[in-house]
Amino acid sequence: MNDAQMTVARPPERSKRLKGDKISLSTTRWYLSRLASMEPAEIIWRARAAAMLPVDWARWKKSPAVPSPRWTPLDAASYPVHLHNSGVRMESIHVFDLEFPLGFEFDWHRDYRYGRQVRRDFAGTLNIRDTAVVSDIKYVWEPSRHQHLSVLAFASNAEEHADYIVQSLNSWLLANPYLNGVHWASSLELGERVISWALLYPRIADHVARDENFRGCFLNSIYLHLNRIASKLSLYSSANNHLIGELVGLFVGSSCFDFWPECGAWRELAQKLLEREICLQVGEDGVDQEQAMSYHLFTMELFLLAFAIGRNTASPFTAAYAQRLRGMAGFLDAVATPDEELPWYGDSDDARGFLLSEGESALEVTMQLAGLLFDEPQWLRFRNTATEAARALAPDLAANLDYGNQLPGIEASAAPRDLFPDAGLACVRTHDDSVRLLMDFGPLGFSSTAAHGHADALSLWLAIGNEYFLVDAGTYAYHSHPEWRTFFRSTAAHNTARVDGRNQSEMAGRFLWSAKANARLLRFEKNSKQITISAEHDGYLALQDPVTHTRTVDFDRATGNVLIEDGFACAGRHEIELFFHMHEEAAVLGLRDGEAQINWRGRRIVFSSPDHNTRWEIFRGSVDPRLGWRSRQFNCKQPIATLRIRAEIDGSTVIRTHLRVNS
Length: 663
Hints:
alpha+beta; eight-stranded antiparallel beta sheet; 28 strands; 31% helix
């Protein structure tokens, strides 16, 4: 099939160059900033890795010998993934905003979003940040994670398309010999691919047994994947969600494909490091420290997958590991609305740790697995039938679910936690849980790079009913559209304050920051009537006249009304901007300085202020200035209403904003 036989949700002009072709920051500046983020030990480690490039190049020129596997035909009873075909019928393949017909023959080195081929060369020298070389790498990598094949393996029409799964795998193996091209450039991609292979293996096991040639190629590639992951782990400042994906891939792969003597050592290494990393990358409060909701879900899926595979292979994880996983579920329990709405903050690329059904959200999969594995019935409320993930990974527990009916025995959980000190987040709610407010006073992100954090210190999110009304603008793009990448990470794209048109934290690259705002909680008080949260950050102390931004929020527990006091401690003159980003269906009824009336979901919501000399403006889908946008899906954006309140101050000033949600 050719490009004309697939559909694109928002088709680009084929003749248009990828917008990321022109690099906004010089390569030299990026490398200097990246070097500044490293400790001496990391620099030495990276220098040693670079010294191994000639060895890798020699292996690329002549693929290394692979030990003969101790392969035996599949024993379904002992395999740690239970095969079933109870998933929904699969009709097409989705890659972000692209849709392909089932049976599509992928060119594994093509970016179908922008109609470009990527360079095939030695993986060790391919610059995956250079769009002139690899186009938009996300669109090239995603099909090669083979998650669409793992979904198909568990779909109701899986048996009739088993040959397509084998043909796709065979096509990929032939097109991607060892270290040839971008699909060998990232250990995370290797880990994600091995996970998909392990999940779908029972569906193709009979073919593997019959076809000796395919079996040889498939098993050789599995070994090379596992060996490469073990030798090329993302460590030091790169040890974020990438390392989790690599370790889970190594653990799952060596558990499910235990055909070589090295598998035992790889499995032990992966399990040992996963036990360490869950405590390093997830706080005691249960929140992923990358400061990104999408990556909380991504890593939780991966941690749960490893936990389930360990349970099914008599290689259990420790109580400490389980406790961190329980904490991750507890955080989601606190911030998710009954309709599965989440306060999306930080980066998101729509990535899934593993995938067995496109119709099941990451929240449904993680909360149901956690509820079953840890015997917490209240966490099952987001899904009242068994997910395909539960049927495959915990079939004994999934069998206890009452299919098609409301799950019995689910009682209202204890009051959810409202303060997450490690993450620097507070989530408070009205007595009847009709309104909840989230406030961020945490770090920019995880490790020295803070790769997936946004400049959102002291930002707010507000849920009214079952949806979030005050929202985060989202992410939109990673490698393409650099001007939009900059906007969606900026302070102006979040519900907080900007001073003199500056970001709180300074960007040094697409996943790098040269200066980071430090926020801290000053006060958290609650009584039967009100909750008060007060915090500050130092992101504007570098200005010629330093400014400290303090935000105090009073939340009425009966009505959900909010009083926000933004204090700016300074000596001189400054321009202040406050931003409030609203759900895309919010409609502005009236606007004047000091008041904005909004209609949303049948409610009249009012922003007001008693302060004079402020200018109130609404932006929707504006390019100059770039305001009034939201991205719910990777590479897709839509206009929303954004309220901007501007003021010129001279010396320390407090600006007050009232938000009435029950008018």
